[in-house]
Amino acid sequence: MATYQKSFRLSTKGHCHVINIDSDVQKIVQASGIRSGIINVSGRGSTLGITTLEYEPGCVSDLERALNAIAPPNSNYAHNARWGDNNGYSHLRSALIGTAKSYPLVDGQLGTGTWQQIVLCDFDDCERDREVTVTIVGD
Amino acid sequence: MATYQKSFRLSTKGHCHVINIDSDVQKIVQASGIRSGIINVSGRGSTLGITTLEYEPGCVSDLERALNAIAPPNSNYAHNARWGDNNGYSHLRSALIGTAKSYPLVDGQLGTGTWQQIVLCDFDDCERDREVTVTIVGD
Amino acid sequence: MATYQKSFRLSTKGHCHVINIDSDVQKIVQASGIRSGIINVSGRGSTLGITTLEYEPGCVSDLERALNAIAPPNSNYAHNARWGDNNGYSHLRSALIGTAKSYPLVDGQLGTGTWQQIVLCDFDDCERDREVTVTIVGD
């Protein structure tokens, strides 16, 4: 049994910027030498999300449109009223989608589908520098 | 410390087919011999979801109705326009719900509630053959 | 490698009561003595959710408002019709948000952001006594 952990950083544009981090995660999985276990992928912060998507412009656009309906940028957010912020919608989206997900490590490979990529969604209303931590436990 | 991993397959009808996989997961948990740890349950693909539900027809129907409002089958999806597909809503639902979840293993038992079952939701628009991987790490 | 697991209980008011359990989780992380790994936080039951939020009254209120739109308390739920219950919306919210999340343990600390707290959301329609299990695997 072993634990392997590595973090990396990336610059985002905010405004529901959806970034494919699948190859970053894959590289860490390969470097770990672990063959079977659980892979946790976590973005630090309260205005981002981690999920999976077929990473092509259509699916990215459909996700953005759906989130614009569920959590519109310009609705009356209590967070904005209280703090003079404009990113109440960013916090809401993050709470709904979640900032971390775990996937299986199977025979040394990330156990996700061919058309399924791990993405970081930056819901904030400005450019951000983000930290993603990948933690693998297994054999 | 040990890692135990097992996959199983199941046939689904698509169209938000919600399948109770709780006993499948329970059997793998029992076979593992592990008493305390983390259980990851993951469906492979970008048009399915894994979550928990009181598995009774009312809750299943309520989930389907809510997803029909959030991600209607026949809205104008950019994924469909780009690829000639009809399952843009399936991809969207999968990104929102997530394809994998982790639960605790407590005293040799799945640490979920009596009225809480692990379900696979097949959001695709056709019948599918699905692979679910259960990974347990612990003592 | 080690596994550390501890459960705690808390009383909730239901009706989308959002409770900051971050310090409870932090205490268990400290007690574990584990420095690097995965932390799973799981609430038992099918009418609650676990997620992260900037825990301030504005974000809490914004989350409640969004869930009132997605899963209104007084809609016509099939669960209610079938069982004479009033908490169909509670089950739906739980299935959408999820009852368990996993985060990284980095250098002996919970690897979440400064403005990001782990919360239990009790979606049920009455007061409840809840059990939360924290499971840590790592080195």
Termini distance of chain A? Answer: 5 Å
Oligomeric nature of the chains: homotrimer
N-to-C order of helices and strands of chain A = EEHEEHHHEEEE
Question: Percentage of helical residues of chain A?
Answer: 25-40%
Indicate the low-confidence ranges of chain A by residue numbers.
none
Most extensive chain interface and residues per partner: A-B, 36 and 33 residues
Mean pLDDT of chain A: 98
Strand order of the largest sheet of chain A: 1-8-3-5-6
Count of DSSP-assigned helices of chain A: 4
Query: What is the number of E strands of chain A?
Result: 8
Q: What would you say about this model in short?
A:
The structure is a homotrimer of 139-residue chains. With 139 residues, chain A is of the alpha+beta class.
Could you characterize the architecture of this molecule?
Three copies of one chain form a homotrimer. Chain A has 139 residues and is α+β, with helices and mostly antiparallel strands. In chain A, 29% of the residues lie in helices and 39% in strands. Chain A has four helices and eight strands, in the order ββαββαααββββ. Chain A has helices at 22-32, 57-70, 78-83, 88-97, and strands at residues 2-12, 17-20, 37-43, 48-53, 100-106, 109-110, 117-122, 128-138. In chain A, the strands form two sheets. Chain A has a five-stranded antiparallel beta sheet, with helices on one face. Chain A has a three-stranded antiparallel beta sheet with strand order 2-7-4. In chain A, strand 5 (100-106) and strand 6 form a beta hairpin. The model of chain A has no long low-confidence stretch (mean pLDDT 98). Chains in contact: A-B, A-C, B-C. The interface between A and B is medium-sized, with 36 and 33 residues.
